[in-house]
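Retry 2 of 3 after timeout on previous attempt. Resubmitting structure tokens to design endpoint.
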């Protein structure tokens, strides 16, 4: 657990919508009760020197965690991390702020499928605001934006849906490469929102390395981090707009809810069944889950870009691996996945005997995964490709130390009176989701000065339709709400045009993986600027809805 405390994944940017999953079991089948499996999979890795303080990158497996998407109560991340600011000495108390997010499913995902989506997950001071991508923040009330304007679209080739960035449907264990590095797109300034508190020039930028797109996509505006300093100047200089990053981050998979059932037999023994849960790999092979988690110094990219913006030679965007340090794996790891066995003891969830069917392994110094016990993991159906199914049935037992644990049992050994054999976990078929909409008032920042072209539409693999328009970079709503003067925005516009001309989507940026195959983004989010708007313009989503 991070920092010795439970870190609920809804902190990564969501509004709780508590809906029952449509787990099906007949009332006459026995005393089965709905419950959940939840917890962490923890990945230890070596530390690197603190001088590598300018961001990170890594490759993580992307796959459908559940065979059938069960509805909005399901919530889980895949493997990810938390990037905090670095301080000299002890960090300040009561001062939570970071970049987290990653691949997963959330309770406020409106157009979810079995395939995960990606969010950016920037957290302002103590969750006062959060930002998941362009136009996506804490809640959906545009009258009270809380991180909605915190992320600026940088790429002219990637359309970011407000529901999260889509991967190609059917992704089944391929590696999704991403990371955050600072770029000096803005200049440091001594005042913020008219007050004498500074804002730094760290524009933490999301870089992707996928099969069909490579390069920078979007960045957190420095004002997102420094804004709390306006009301409390003592916080000045403590956020990621000015601070370097801490290179030694936790690496975990955080799961809040996987549907399950528990039931007792005639003898009083307790059994459980969980929804079919998938992992990459084959029963007789290993799973590649995390690869090349790397920390960078400013020499990797920042120094060259700053010199370029100051009149020096152009840089290619290739992040220098000589200014990087790769964290090493040794094959250790822990699991805290638990199932609640009772009706009332919600705080006494019992752990799974995880090590009986999964063993953490370092496949090489830079690659982490699991080795599976063939007797307990199963094959999936043909469409699932190279995925395995974790054990579904468990019995409550005692370990050698006398502590409760859930041990794996064969389905044939589960008493019929529990009803668990007849339990099903069908795919969620809910009502049409409400659309995401943006302000349309004639005097809003969405209309003044407004888009240069559009609207256009893209139909995504999740079934939704995104309406978007092309904005001049400096005129996009995020830039109009970034506490920048007109002159500052024009300077930024010129720098972005330099990037658009040189940093194309088919060049290399992040160090390439040495194992596996890259995942693809949903082809529908790969767009091309209209004629005449190839440089200096970006696509901005204004609506996402079910097809009419």
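Retry 2 succeeded. Sequence:
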């Amino acid at each position: 657990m991070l920092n010795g405390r439970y870190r609920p994944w809804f902190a990564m940017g969501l509004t709780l919508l508590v809906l029952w999953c449509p787990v099906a079991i007949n009332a006459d089948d026995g005393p089965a009760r709905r419950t959940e499996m939840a917890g962490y999979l923890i990945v230890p890795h070596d530390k690197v020197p603190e001088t590598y303080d300018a961001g990170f990158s890594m490759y993580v497996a992307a796959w459908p965690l559940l065979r059938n998407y069960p509805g909005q109560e399901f919530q889980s991340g895949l493997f990810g991390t938390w990037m905090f600011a670095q301080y000299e000495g002890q960090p300040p108390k009561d001062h939570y702020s970071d970049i987290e997010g990653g691949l997963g499913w959330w309770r406020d995902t409106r157009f979810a499928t079995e395939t995960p989506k990606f969010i950016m997950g920037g957290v302002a001071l103590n969750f006062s605001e959060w930002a998941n991508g362009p136009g996506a923040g804490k809640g959906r009330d545009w009258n009270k934006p809380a991180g909605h304007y915190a992320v600026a679209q940088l790429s002219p080739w990637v359309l970011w849906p407000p529901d999260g960035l889509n991967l190609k449907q059917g992704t089944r264990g391929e590696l999704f490469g991403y990371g955050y590095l600072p770029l000096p797109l803005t200049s440091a300034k001594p005042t913020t929102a008219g007050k004498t508190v500074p804002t730094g020039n760290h524009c933490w930028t999301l870089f992707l390395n996928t099969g069909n797109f490579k390069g920078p996509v979007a960045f957190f505006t420095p004002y997102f981090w420094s804004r709390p300093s306006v009301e409390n100047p003592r916080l000045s200089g403590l956020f990621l707009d000015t601070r370097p990053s801490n290179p030694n981050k936790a690496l975990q998979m955080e799961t809040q809810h996987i549907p399950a059932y528990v039931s007792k037999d005639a003898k009083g023994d307790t059994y459980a069944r969980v929804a079919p849960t998938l992992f990459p790999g084959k029963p007789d092979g290993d799973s590649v889950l995390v690869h090349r988690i790397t920390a960078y110094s400013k020499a990797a990219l920042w120094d060259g870009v700053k010199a370029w913006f100051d009149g020096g030679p152009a840089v290619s965007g290739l992040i220098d691996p000589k200014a990087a340090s790769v964290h090493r794996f040794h094959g250790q790891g822990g699991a805290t996945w638990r199932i609640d066995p009772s009706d009332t003891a919600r705080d006494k969830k019992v752990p799974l005997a995880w090590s009986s069917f999964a063993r953490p392994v370092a496949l090489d110094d830079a690659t982490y995964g699991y080795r599976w016990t063939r007797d307990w993991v199963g094959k999936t159906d043909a469409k699932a490709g190279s995925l395995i199914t974790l054990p579904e049935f468990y019995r409550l037992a005692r370990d050698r130390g006398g502590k409760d644990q859930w041990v794996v049992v064969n389905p044939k050994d589960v008493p019929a009176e529990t009803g668990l054999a007849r339990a099903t976990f069908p795919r969620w078929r809910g009502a049409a989701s409400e659309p995401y909409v943006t302000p349309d008032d004639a005097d809003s920042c969405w209309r003044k000065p407004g888009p240069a072209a559009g609207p256009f539409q893209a139909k995504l693999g999740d079934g939704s339709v995104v309406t978007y328009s092309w904005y001049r970079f400096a005129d996009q709503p995020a830039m109009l709400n970034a506490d920048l003067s007109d002159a500052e925005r024009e300077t930024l516009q010129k720098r972005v045009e330099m990037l658009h001309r040189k940093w194309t989507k088919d060049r290399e940026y992040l160090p390439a993986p040495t194992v596996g195959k890259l995942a693809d983004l949903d082809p529908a989010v790969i767009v091309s600027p209209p004629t005449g708007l190839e440089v200096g313009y970006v696509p901005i989503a204004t609506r996402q809805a079910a097809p009419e």
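Attempt log closed. The helical segments are 222-231, 302-309, 477-480, 486-502.
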